[in-house]
Design brief:
The protein is α+β, with helices and mostly antiparallel strands and 161 residues long. 27% of the residues lie in helices and 24% in strands. It has one domain: Peptide Methionine Sulfoxide Reductase, Chain A (2-Layer Sandwich). Helix 4 links the parallel strand 6 and strand 7. The relative contact order is 0.26.
Length: 161
C-alpha cells in the first residue's frame, strides 16, 4: 500500500485504479496537522492536508516503481501546489511512504524521471512519511465512475523515463 497526492484526487484515482495489479483505491486526505478533517476544511488549503489516493496493489503483478512511473506521467510533478486550474497546497505532489524501502524506491524513481529530461523542469514532489490517511466522504469515492462527465485535469502524457 502506498499513498500518493498529485492534484484533485478524482482524476488520480480514476487513472491509477485501471493499472493491472492495483487491487483497491480510496481517496482521502494526508499530510495535515490534525488526525481528522473534512473536505470543507481541506478545500480551503488551510488544513495542511493534500487530496490523496491510497493504492493497494499486488506486488507479484506490479511493483511500486511501476506505479510511481504511472504517477509521474498522469500529473505534472514540476509545479508547486498546482495541477491544471487547481491551485493550493491541497493539490501538491507528494509520495507518502510507509517504510524505508518505499522511500528508497521513490527517491530512485524521481532521480530517473529528472535524468530522463521528460519534464523540462525538475520534479518538486515531496517524499514524506505517511502519518495518517483520512478517508474522504463517500461521495468522493469512485467519483468519476459515478460521474463520468465529472471534472478532471489528469491524463497520461506520452513521455518515457
Amino acid at each position: 500500500m502506498i499513498v500518493l497526492a498529485g492534484g484533485c484526487f478524482w482524476g488520480v484515482e480514476e487513472l491509477l485504479r485501471k493499472i493491472p495489479g492495483v487491487t483497491n483505491t480510496d481517496v482521502g486526505y494526508s499530510g495535515g496537522a490534525s488526525d481528522d478533517t473534512t473536505y470543507n476544511e481541506v478545500k480551503t488549503g488551510k488544513s495542511g492536508h493534500a487530496e490523496s489516493v491510497r493504492i493497494e496493489f499486488d506486488p507479484h503483478i506490479i511493483g511500486l516503481d511501476k506505479i510511481l512511473e504511472h504517477f509521474f506521467k498522469l500529473h505534472d510533478p514540476t509545479t508547486v501546489n498546482q495541477q491544471g486550474h487547481d491551485v493550493g497546497s491541497q493539490y501538491r505532489s507528494v509520495i507518502f511512504y510507509n517504510n524505508e524501502k518505499q522511500k528508497e524506491v521513490a527517491v530512485a524513481i524521481i532521480k530517473k524521471v529528472d535524468q530522463s529530461g521528460a519534464w523540462k523542469k525538475p520534479v518538486v514532489t515531496e517524499i514524506i512519511p505517511l502519518k495518517k490517511f483520512i478517508t474522504a466522504e463517500d461521495y468522493h469515492q469512485d467519483y468519476l465512475l459515478k460521474n463520468p462527465a465529472g471534472y478532471t485535469c489528469h491524463y497520461y502524457r506520452k513521455i518515457n523515463f
